[in-house]
């Protein structure tokens, strides 16, 4: 639909602000100014596929490929990415206990992976992603389709101390399949799990993954309408706003 509009010249007429007055055909559907602006931004993004986005812009931001909304791609804003990285680094770093540092699996959350490697390149991390543009991360990239939740290299089985997942869709089917992937990756003795998804998945997330919502509110660079939450399978206490007691979370 987007391409058809662009090809027909409708976009040029509206964005250019040309007023056709009485010649305007009232029956022709028209987009609101906000929708037209979103469309214009989308088309501009599509016209520069080889360029990279800088999430967070300023010093310390990371380079990411442009969002492809057809793949349900909405990147975290810098505040969100940094809060998640801080937590993940804390979880994988042995604090004088003598235990080996853990590895991190990032399921469909490339922004987290990019910020993590920028912040602490030494943390072992694997990005599982459907978008092959992230092949730029070399051996840290594993192609992943949630429809084949366990079609992964055997070496990844039960290998991750921290698993972070941000499923592409809000459906029951998608969360069930991602839950299978989480079980595949997590260590039998228990791993830290962070799930980012819509508030609407709260009951299902508890049932499938034993995760509860935190007070911290994750956000995207390009705002989404749905209520977005961070869920964890452990109580982060004074970090990330703790488990949100107003949601009935209890230990
Ligand atoms: C909601 S986004 C999460 C991105 C995250 N907010 C970030 O900033 O890193 C969902 C991710 O799922 C990926 N995805 C799309 N289709 C997929 C599929 N069939 N299997 C697995 N991942 C998929 C997208 O490429 C996208 O990165």
From TrEMBL:
InterPro entries, per the entry: DNA_methylase_N6_adenine_CS, Efm5/EEF1AKMT1, Mlase_EEF1AKMT1/ZCCHC4, SAM-dependent_MTases_sf
The protein's matches in Gene3D superfamilies, at most eight in alphabetical order, are given as:
Vaccinia Virus protein VP39 (3.40.50.150)
UniProt-listed HAMAP family: Methyltr_EFM5 (MF_03187)
Q: What family does this chain come from, according to its entry? A: Belongs to the class I-like SAM-binding methyltransferase superfamily. EFM5 family.
Where, if anywhere, are coiled coils annotated?
none
Gene Ontology biological process: methylation
Query: Basic and acidic residues bias: where?
Result: 11-20, 38-50
Location of the protein in the cell: Cytoplasm
Q: Which GO terms describe its molecular function?
A: nucleic acid binding; protein-lysine N-methyltransferase activity
Q: What is its EC number?
A: 2.1.1.-
Q: Which organism is it from?
A: Sorghum bicolor (Sorghum)
Region called Disordered, residue ranges: 1-63
Q: Identify the PROSITE patterns for this entry.
A: N6_MTASE
**GO cellular component terms attached to this protein's record:** cytoplasm
Described by its record, this protein's role is as follows: S-adenosyl-L-methionine-dependent protein-lysine N-methyltransferase that methylates elongation factor 1-alpha.
Which of UniProt's keywords are assigned here?
A: Cytoplasm, Methyltransferase, Transferase
Q: What is this protein called?
A: Protein-lysine N-methyltransferase BDA96_01G092900
